[in-house]
Design brief:
alpha+beta; 3 domains; 6-stranded antiparallel barrel; 18% helix; single chain; 6-stranded antiparallel beta barrel; Thrombin, subunit H; Pdz3 Domain
């Protein structure tokens, strides 16, 4: 082939080679932005006061959590609670054994050597108690003491060097103050709810003494029972006990009451409550003249149980008790609180108004004989209840 022909062929092949090279190069990437399915707001600074509050609340919750525990229990089913068994037909396999009932609640450690507080209804009748610490360790729990009237229990685990919750002064707690409720509601671990003190002075049960229980709107759901109610000072001011049936309010046992009962629970396994054996009532405005009183005060004795301390001390129906050992009484709950916390066997001096005249009686306080089992929570009464009748 001549030189001229070769050049012509080469020139004719250049467009083809350029096309091949162009086809082998990757297509340029698309510059269209990705589709976004949400809208983000630009970062906005949190007001300094709110940021400080957020940091404080977070630090408080984290500081209190190590002493919080989960209490798991196993109870055997009471045969009387089971439906009547139908007779088996020949050849039918036997029914499987009844499964034990399992439940859980909360608690908090009060001593480094393994003592912790929870509610009585959490551990009452438990065949087995297991305590799970915040670090995940599990221990068998031993019931040391239990009291049904205020729903309080003391449990012990074999451990040392544990983190403890500092107990505060519930008398200093004021309505409207911020509080945190810690616990394990519905089996969810290490939860915190926030609220205020809504009211003080609400008894948990009809049979409970007249102590000032704490009402709060901090959520106290099933499983929170026995957990601590925390003040903004980082101290335990109450033991979460129960929630109202609609779930909007909760109640806590004042920690000062708990501190007063712990020695008896540890030493005796129970609390000996003082008892007079009377049915009491409040004196209304229209009833004061009937009893010769210038103003409605004191506690009216409706009935006296025969053979009980008040009867032995000379108290009669229609007496009005104005004071105990020099302490004046404004209403029934004052009498309940004083007598229930008086040691059994101690003699108290009652200032009594009888038929328009004052008199004094010496009465030796007896032991309250209450129900041996925890009763279901009842509605909070509007008025102070009478002392419950002795068991029959």
């Amino acid at each position: 082939m001549s030189y001229r022909a070769s050049a012509v062929v080469l020139v004719s092949l250049i467009p083809l080679l350029a096309g091949v090279a162009t086809a082998q190069q990757p297509a340029p990437a698309s510059t269209a932005p990705p589709v976004q399915y949400w809208t983000e707001t630009p970062a906005a600074p949190v007001p300094p006061d709110i940021q400080r509050l957020n940091d404080f609340m977070n630090g408080l919750a984290e500081r209190m959590k190590p002493a919080l525990v989960q209490v798991r229990v196993r109870r055997m089913i009471d045969p009387s609670d089971l439906p009547e068994q139908q007779p088996r037909t020949p050849g039918q396999p036997p029914s499987p054994p009844d499964e034990p009932r399992r439940a859980s609640g909360s608690g908090f450690i009060i001593r480094q050597d393994g003592y912790l507080v929870t509610n009585a209804h959490v551990v009452d009748d438990a065949e087995q108690i297991q305590v799970k610490l915040s670090d995940g360790r599990r221990f068998a729990g031993r019931l040391v003491g239990l009291d049904n009237r205020v729903d309080l229990a003391l449990v012990k685990i074999d451990a040392t060097g544990l983190p403890v919750a500092a107990l505060g002064d519930s008398n200093k707690l004021r309505v409207g103050e911020f509080v945190l409720a810690l616990g394990h509601p519905f089996g969810l671990e290490q939860t915190v709810s926030f609220g205020i003190v809504s009211r003080k002075g609400a008894p948990l049960e009809v049979a409970a003494p007249g102590f000032d229980f704490i009402q709060t709107d901090a959520a106290v759901n099933p499983g929170n029972s026995g957990g601590p109610l925390i003040s903004m000072a980082g101290e335990v001011v109450g033991v979460n006990s129960m929630a109202a049936r609609n779930g909007s309010i909760g109640f806590a046992i004042p920690i000062n009451l708990v501190k007063g009962l712990l020695p008896q629970l540890a030493e005796k396994g129970r609390v000996e409550w003082g008892w007079l054996g009377v049915t009491i009532a409040e004196i209304g405005e229209d009833e004061a003249p009937k009893y010769g009183l210038a103003e409605p005060r004191g506690v009216l004795i409706r009935n006296v149980v025969v053979g009980q301390p008040a009867d032995k001390g000379g108290v009669k129906a229609n007496d009005v008790i104005l004071g105990v050992d020099g302490a004046s009484l404004e209403g029934p709950r004052d009498l309940q609180r004083i007598i229930s916390s008086t040691p059994v066997g101690r003699t108290v001096k009652l200032k009594v108004w009888r038929e328009g005249k004052p008199t004094e009686l010496d009465v030796t306080v007896g032991a309250y004989q209450g129900p041996s089992r925890v009763t279901p929570p009842r509605r909070v009464p509007e008025r102070a209840p009478a002392e419950p009748e002795p068991p029959k």
